[in-house]
Amino acid sequence: MMEVMASNPIIELYKRDVDRTLIRENLKLSVTERLEQLMAMQRFAAEMQRAGREARAKARATPDAK
Amino acid sequence: MTDLPALLATLKQAGVEFIVVGGVAATVHGSARLTLDLDVVYRRTPENRRRVFEAFQSLSPYPRGAPPGLPFQWDERSIAQGLNFTLTTGLGAVDLLGEITGGGDYDALLPHTVEMEPFGVKCRCLTLSKLIEVKAAAGRPKDFEILAELETIKEERGDSDECPPKASVKPRSSLG
To answer: Could you report how far apart the first and last alpha carbons of chain A are, in Å?
Structure first.
């Protein structure tokens, strides 16, 4: 299956857009560091979601505000 | 946020036989993608099902995305009657999988794992090659980008499947 996918032209097309610089940086890290980085991303995503909810609630509360 | 150190420690301390798969396994191998849950394949023996039950019983496990108030009971019987559980817990989102498409169950996957020790917790993770294989077997368009990244990681490593730099992983054959 892996060989099939490796030669899959769709996957090859997607590979053009993969950011190899991020992968190279990750490969310099230990497994623990990679997972710590993932949790930092999770925290950031959660904070952005919270901020988005807050902004939407504020916009609803003051519909005339620009 | 999913508390990965605490979840891995919880599984380990309860003696659960499990393999890390999915997005966290991809991160272990160098993926830069965000994943929000921990996917593990657990062994479906009665003893291990009991350990899974004990590991999560104090963490208020509940089906993720389900409306509140369902008559969901986290007990050994529920685990025996089910197979795959997508849960929210006190430590974050966890998928407990009895088997995965293209990979099978714990025993089928075990030869395709590496040992790792993140946060000081020894556990097993699917190899990069097997991870690619199961993602390909799933055949979902949403996995195309992930597959492309995993294939690129393999190219960038340019090494054996099992030993990413600085990862301190050991092929299964080296274990006692």
So the answer is: 54
pTM of the model: 0.88
What's the pLDDT at B174? Answer: 40
What domain range includes position B102?
4-174
- Asked if B138 reaches chain A (Cβ–Cβ under 8 Å), the answer is no
ipTM, two decimals, is 0.86
Q: pLDDT, tens digit, for every residue of A10-46?
A: 999 999 999 999 999 999 999 999 999 999 999 999 9
How many domains in chain B?
Answer: 1
Please name the member of B144, B156, B168 whose beta carbon is closest to the beta carbon of A31.
B168
CATH of residue B99's domain is: 3.30.460.40
CB B36 within 8 A of CB B93: yes
Q: Which residue has the tokens 């003696």?
A: B15
Residues of A in contact with B149 (CB under 8 A): 18, 23
Task: Read off the tokens for B20.
Answer: 């890390």
- Distance from the B136 Cα atom to the nearest Cα atom in chain A, whole angstroms: 6
B49: closest CA of chain A, how far (Å)? 27
